[in-house]
Amino acid sequence: MSVPVPLRALWRSDHGASAAEFALVLPTFLLFLLGTIDVGRFIWAVNESEKATQAGARLAVVSNTIPGGDIGCAANDNRTPGLQCYSFALASNVAQGSPVPKSLFPTITCSAPGGTLACTPTSAPFSVVTAGNTAAQNAFGAIVARVNELQPRADADNVVVTYEWSGLGYAGDPNGPDVSPIVTVSVRGLAFRPIFLAGFGTLGLPDQAYSLTLEDGQG
Question: Residue limits of the TadE-like domain (predicted)?
Fold first, then answer.
């Protein structure tokens, strides 16, 4: 059976070959293009987190301390709980003017999962209970707001502030906290949504942290 001339001509025609080849290459090209864009977006987001922790830590060391807030800052009683005004000389029998031993200053971690601020540990030598403590809530909220300015993906669920013993400061300091701790602001658990996945999946951004030594602690 012979093939009609028009069909034979159509079969042999190479018109539109470039379009067909382009259609075959286009999906791979788009994935490569979008992947390249996503790499840049990912690096940008990581840099945002890094700068956000730096700015958050800078604010944290020159503003009010979170754990304990201003509890115990009454002029007539430095024995009451609260990192800001806790006297290791009076309450923990550390010699006046001596550095506070590391054993008396546990690492304090403050976070607000679900929007509720809490610090651990909550036991001696001083209380870090933040429930109802407006100063602590405001101090943490200010750090979160500063972090969010530079990393819009971050909110209170993603920010963690820790206070660690540094060896600086001395018991009975009348001008501020007895310990000048190392303050670390961390941004954790952020998600990144790549374009090339068409919005159907996310990747995790690496956690970032930045530390500075407390300078003021009184706002």
Answer: 16-58
User: Residue 99 gets which letter from DSSP?
Assistant: P
Joined together, the tokens standing for residue 12 give 């042999």
Give the CA dihedral 83, 84, 90, 95, nearest 10 degrees: 90
The Cα–Cα gap between 21 and 25 comes to: 6
Query: Distances in Å between the alpha carbon of 193 and those of 147, 148, 190, 205?
Result: 20, 18, 10, 10
Q: Which residues pair with 140 in a beta bridge?
A: none
The whole-angstrom distance between residue 106's C-alpha and the CA centroid of its chain comes to 21
Name the token pair of 216: 């003021």
Q: How far apart are CA 101 and CA 82, in angstroms?
A: 17
The Cα–Cα gap between 21 and 10 comes to 18
Q: How far is CA 111 from the centre of its chain?
A: 10
* pTM: predicted TM-score of the whole model, two decimal places: 0.80
